[in-house]
Amino acid sequence: SQTIHQWPATLVQPVGSPLSLECTVEGTSNPNLYWYRQAAGRGLQLLFYSVGIGQISSEVPQNLSASRPQDRQFILSSKKLLLSDSGFYLCAWRPSGANVLTFGAGSRLTVL
Amino acid sequence: RKEVEQDPGPFNVPEGATVAFNCTYSNSASQSFFWYRQDCRKEPKLLMSVYSSGNEDGRFTAQLNRASQYISLLIRDSKLSDSATYLCAVQDSGNTPLVFGKGTRLSVIA
To answer: Is residue B1 very low, low, confident or very high in pLDDT (cuts 50, 70, 90)?
Structure first.
């Protein structure tokens, strides 16, 4: 069966520090991968998505970046965090050509 | 800008009540529709897809109205365990990402 793993689950980072969130999917190949952010009082905001290795589409210009170094690995990064980067980051996947989206357990980031 | 709008909530209802949520979408070409449930501090989980003819899963009924560009979720005989935030999601086509509404919070009260 397919599973999605996301880590770390929780982190507290100072302003200006770097960030790396990782997401891996097991039990499938060539999935479509997504990073969403849910800030307090706001909805799910799509940040990046990828339909294949090395293919990244950015939805919102900001100080975050994403990479897909392997078929089932999706990484969200920042060189310097801002206070406004605080939020609940959710990785999600779905089979290529299908439309059922499954989320990871999320990474809760607090920037102080 | 493609948008998905939901009833702001919160909805506070007694156990056993029937509650309905609506969600409107701006892109008339949208093809796929979903309802997700999100518990506090957890990830959203798929509740049900919404089919053109409407579909039912136990106490939950989802409907699509393409002419008016909205989807609805009806929950009958509400349980305390139904308390959560309900998110609607819309997809245009193929591999395009899902666009989510901001969610409607439901509290079922004993």
So the answer is: low
**Best of B40, B98, B104 to disrupt the A interface by mutation (most A CBs within 10 Å)?**
B98
Q: Do A31 and A25 contact (CB within 8 A), yes or no?
A: yes
- pLDDT tens figures, A33-60: 999 999 887 889 999 999 999 999 998 8
Report DSSP letters for A13-68, one per residue: E-TT--EEEEEEEES-SS-EEEEEEE-TTS-EEEEEEEEETTEEEESS-SSEEEEE
A43 → closest Cβ in B34, B94, B100: B100
| Chain B positions in Cβ-Cβ contact with residue A42 (cut-off 8 Å) | 102
